[in-house]
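Re-run requested by the PI after the first attempt was lost when the workstation crashed. Everything re-entered from the original request form. Ligand of interest: flavin mononucleotide.
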Amino acid sequence: MAATAAATAPSHQPTPLLTPYKMGKFNLSHRVVLAPLTRERSYKNVPQPHAVLYYSQRTSNGGLLIAEATGVSDTAQGYPETPGIWTKEQVEAWKPIVDAVHAKGGIFFCQIWHVGRVSNTGYQPNGQAPISSTDKGISPTPRVDGLGHTEHTPPRRLRTDEIPGIINDFRLAARNAIEAGFDGVEVHGAHGYLLDQFLKDKVNDRTDQYGGSLENRCRLPLEVVEAVVDEVGADRVGIRLSPFADFSESGDSNPLQLGLYMVNALNKFNIVYCHAVEPRVGSVGGPDENLTPMRKAFNGTFIAAGGYDREDGNRAIAENRADLIAYGRLFLANPDLPKRFALNAPLNKYNRLTFYHLNSDPLVGYSDYPFLDEESNSVES
Ligand SMILES: Cc1cc2nc3c(=O)[nH]c(=O)nc-3n(C[C@H](O)[C@H](O)[C@H](O)COP(=O)(O)O)c2cc1C
């Protein structure tokens, strides 16, 4: 009888992405996470009131949101109009945004960030050189609108005696994030920015205790995590890592070894999550398997991101390759993404030209993507 019932039962399996999950002390109602998305609409590095609507649109009761990369100090910027969290004014400006997310039952982490050498003198105090693990510069990068390139100034290699100051900047930023009301912070250790510039052997050419061996290259990111954990508690700390990526000329000759070393070392801090970015290119371990060794080695919640759609995400959860999936471009263009996934509804297309502000109306391509129950209005990608 039981076998017959199972065979004839309608297939009402729960959608894996829409199942609840307990992340440390946070009870998530589903596994569809808003990935951190820089939007360049925070004038003079201060979050703006228009972010209240943008983030609250993307909030669901019990959903996890990660705020856009947010600078930890006045040397941390390398892009126009990105938010910071090192001044009182910035902390106050974040408060209504965080409150709006909480009012709808969201859990909100702030990604804390230093760009390192992905910058130029125009973003630096007193026109000084950007700082990094190295004094090697990077090539200009094409702008997203195709209008020319972003120039980077060759960086100044941080002296060993300056490293404690960097760690302290992350510590204070974490304290400020909690003061602003965030539920936690995500240390940005990915994508070729400062901490990744220490991690990766194609960038880090130091000869002190922060360069050379794998252990030495991982030292600064781990000291940052330790300081942040010490400041706000491990249950409020996550980290983002992209060992397989080589954004801004930040590749590593052995990304799997690097990723595994980091997650094993992170285990001793009991941080709440590790958020890893898929390479989605190359063939280490075959498609979708690249992050699996890190996932297996890490004791906390594992978030995967990078190129996932609904089906990929469901499969990754069902196969236990991740606990949560972070969505970037799809969530940017679909404020009600978890609901659309629940209903398997069609998605709005994202418009690459309005990812960043680029001198147009800041609300365009920001808080004007339609909800499912609004008039259908597909935006061209
Ligand atoms: C407009 C835009 C801004 C982004 N800003 C950030 C950021 O601030 N911090 C970060 O770690 N990743 C950032 N990313 C990467 C995304 O978080 C995500 O990893 C990437 O888009 C791949 O996921 P997807 O395929 O779901 O879009 C950004 C991506 C886009 C498209």
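Saved to the shared folder this time. The longest strand covers residues 64-71.
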